[in-house]
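Q: Given only this backbone (149 positions), what sequence would you predict?
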């Protein structure tokens, strides 16, 4: 059983929505992946895909719940809700595999939270180039991660 059992709530979704604007028609992200809604990707998304706002909100909850379950599963150190939300945003954007393979999660699991927070800005490139939107998102995740609960 995981040490952490945090769940996604309105604060989690609100934070993610700041960096993943709603798209009712499919678009290609900075990596060339087809996305829809609030950054949802998948084999079922293509250039012709569309979605309603209600369906997009439901899909976001489903995606963030999956991200949150992943965060709970890979964290062995006790984290607070702000740290959880920051990590859910990170995973929603980059995938659980990226977190699992990162120094970020290794430092968290060692209880080195300040050092871990400094890892967020290392994930700001898209297509080999620095992305201003990813830089903004990573610093916001870092700030949230360091906010006491």
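A: Predicted residues:
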């Amino acid at each position: 059983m995981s040490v952490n059992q945090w769940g996604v709530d309105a604060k989690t979704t609100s934070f993610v929505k700041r960096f993943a604007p709603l798209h009712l028609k499919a678009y290609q992200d900075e990596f060339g992946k087809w996305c829809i809604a609030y950054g949802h990707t998948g084999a079922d998304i293509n250039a012709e895909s569309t979605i309603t706002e209600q369906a997009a909100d439901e899909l976001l909850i489903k995606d963030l719940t999956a991200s949150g379950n992943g965060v709970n599963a890979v964290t062995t150190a006790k984290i607070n809700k702000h740290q959880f939300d920051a990590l859910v945003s990170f995973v929603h954007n980059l995938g659980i595999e990226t977190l699992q393979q990162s120094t970020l999660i290794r430092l968290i699991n060692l209880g080195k939270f300040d050092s871990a927070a400094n890892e967020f800005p290392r994930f700001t490139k898209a297509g080999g180039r620095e992305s201003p939107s990813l830089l903004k998102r990573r610093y916001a995740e870092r700030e949230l991660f360091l906010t006491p609960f």
